[in-house]
Design brief:
Number of helices: 2
Strand order of the largest sheet: 4-1-3-2-5
Largest sheet: 5 strands, antiparallel
CATH architecture: 2-Layer Sandwich
Strand content: 25-35%
Radius of gyration: 12 Å
Structural class: alpha+beta
């Protein structure tokens, strides 16, 4: 089932959407990242592989590849998603 991740912390204006897209591409995932009005970032993952989604989430929080990201993710909401896929940064 596709996943919706809501990233909280210092995540807007710090290259977060690009960061999410780059990790998605590195991991062979498809999805999108969009800024939300409340200052969070929404990531939609088009995958049924729960282990891969969890691996992606851990990568975003821990940044093991040391990708450029000037913010900090302090909390993530990990939700099932059944809506349309799309957003600002598609990967």
């Amino acid at each position: 089932m596709p996943r919706e991740l809501i990233l909280h912390g210092r995540v807007q204006g710090v290259c977060c959407r690009d960061y999410c897209s780059r990790y998605g591409k590195l991991m062979g995932l498809r999805g999108s990242a969009s800024n939300l009005e409340d200052g969070s970032v929404q990531v939609l993952l088009a995958t049924d592989d729960a282990a891969k989604a969890d691996e992606y989430l851990r990568a975003l929080v821990n940044n093991p590849s040391e990708l450029r990201f000037y913010g900090r993710i302090t909390r993530v909401e990990n939700l099932a998603y059944s809506g349309p896929m799309g957003g600002d940064y598609n990967f």
